[in-house]
Specification:
alpha/beta; binds S-adenosylmethionine
Length: 234
């Protein structure tokens, strides 16, 4: 399985026009995606995986979760053009810090300008390379524990990213894992898609971990039919 995933899930259920219209309504009313975020989203076209960033209302949801959790230190797996990173970084506030892990130098070349334009460059640290290795380095460096983790990189590595997140977080930390529904394919235990198996393996790991409370929410919208897991360390 290449670590470069197609941007969109297979379109067994393409995003319905109504879903897109509803996303647009809430984004225009509640979310307030500013021109900097719009520019960051558009710059995804210069990355290895165009259109793979979270939707605006999902970015706002992540930002709200960070604020609700009172998180000041955030770790992200999968930066792309830094769209979700900006939502996370704005939510930790000036005294906060976000570390974001990205494999592709081509993508990292885009993010610095996006972070600067968004006014968050000072509080974001981008580490280039395979996220398992970058996270292992953070563990061996005994960095200060993180309060919030967003896992949104290559899905087959989800179990490894969860294991690293558990090494790198404090009690009470929140861990969010994106794209866990995959057009409903998550329920197919015989799936030959390693991304589906990556989701199912991380579900098994969470289920077997008595230190984690978790749930999953399905979502429909401009990105189609997908969803996320929200877990919290006891
Ligand atoms: N979180 C971003 C957002 O919402 O704006 C979207 C991230 S995109 C879905 C997934 C990203 O993970 C891509 O930029 C891809 O290059 C990166 N990626 C894939 N495999 C990786 C790996 N092994 N280590 C680190 N990053 C990886």
């Amino acid at each position: 399985m290449s670590e470069r995933e197609p941007a969109a899930p297979s379109n067994r259920y393409p995003a319905a026009a109504e879903w897109q219209t509803v996303d647009k309504y809430f984004t225009e009313t509640l979310v307030g995606e500013d021109p900097t975020l719009v520019a960051a989203r558009k710059s995804g076209g210069e990355t290895t995986m165009p259109n793979a960033e979270v939707a605006a209302n999902q970015g706002a949801f992540l930002g709200l979760l960070v604020k609700i959790a009172g998180a000041k230190r955030v770790l992200e797996f999968g930066t792309l053009a830094g769209y979700s990173t900006i939502w996370l970084a704005r939510s930790v506030g000036e005294s906060g810090h976000v570390v974001t892990l990205e494999l592709e130098p081509q993508n990292v070349a885009v993010v610095e300008e996006n972070f600067r334009a968004a006014g968050v460059a000072e509080r974001v640290e981008t580490i280039v390379g395979p996220a398992t290795e970058s996270a292992a380095q953070l563990i061996s460096d005994s960095v200060e524990p993180f309060d919030f983790v967003f896992i949104d990189a290559d899905k087959p590595s989800n179990p490894a990213y969860l294991a690293a997140a558990l090494e790198l977080t404090r009690s009470g930390a929140v861990i969010v894992i994106d794209n866990v529904v995959r057009n409903g394919a998550v329920v197919d235990g015989d799936s030959s898609d390693p991304r589906v198996q990556g989701v199912r393996s991380v579900v098994d790991a969470i289920t077997a971990n008595p230190d984690l409370d978790a749930t999953a929410l399905q979502a429909v919208g401009e990105k189609g039919w997908d969803g996320l897991i929200i877990a919290r360390r006891r």
